[in-house]
Every structure is written in C-alpha cells, then in structure tokens.
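Troubleshooting log. The previous structure file for this entry was overwritten by mistake, so regenerating from the original sequence record. Sequence copied from the archived sheet and checked twice against the printout by T.R.
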Amino acid sequence: MRKFFIASHGRLASGMKSSLEILLGSAENVTVLDAYLDQTRVEDGIEAFFAACSSDDQKFLLSDLYGGSVNQVLFRYSDQADTYLIAGVNLAVVLELVAGETHLNEDEIQAILQESRNALCLVKHDHAEIVQEDFF
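Regenerated output below.
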C-alpha cells in the first residue's frame, strides 16, 4: 500500500488532505503535519508515521518547500526502504499519487511529477477569442 506523510509550514498540509477527501472521498493513507502551529516537532510526526507503516508499504514524504526547514527534517528520513521524498508539492501531484493503489517505480513517479509541472500554467483571457455560450 502507498502511505503518505504531507508536512508543511502552517496549514497547507491539512488543507491538501481536506481537498483530497472532497475529491477522492477518503484519504485514510494520508498523514499530515502542519508545522510550527504548536509545540509538535516534525521529527515526532515523521517517527509516528514510520511506526505505523509496514515493511510492504511504499512511503511518500511530501513537503511544501524544497530546502525549507520541514523538507530538511524529512530528508533525514528519506533513506528508509521504499521511501521517496518529493518537495514543492501541489494538489495536482498529491492527487495523482494518492489516487493510485499499486507500487510506483521511479520512472512512474517522475512521469507524475512532469504531468504536474505541465498543469502549472498562466491562465489568461484572450479577449479576441472569447465566445459567449448559452449553457442553459
């Protein structure tokens, strides 16, 4: 099974889990840590996450900011067996990762990351091409 630990500065992690639950109906395999809101240490959260995982689980550590303090803590745990650390996550990549059930290989993970990058775009109105449609 895939298991996920999403950690962020502030409430971004719990917001992502909330969005996952709306879009997928459930996110039981997702653990979140909203860092620096109370006295909970990132180390304590990640250690509890690993304690709840089995050796058969594929583990994904997801952080909000590459090089940030949360990511630096997760990096120390990224050498565990079948564990991947992904920094700079957005909802598109988290949704794609969480929605599947089978183990992913590194090429498949890279493809998901590339799809997420491709979905990141500047959306602009081109006033010359706006077509008014009656949807009702």
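The domain at 2-121 is CATH 3.40.50.510 (Rossmann fold). Archived copy saved in two places this time.
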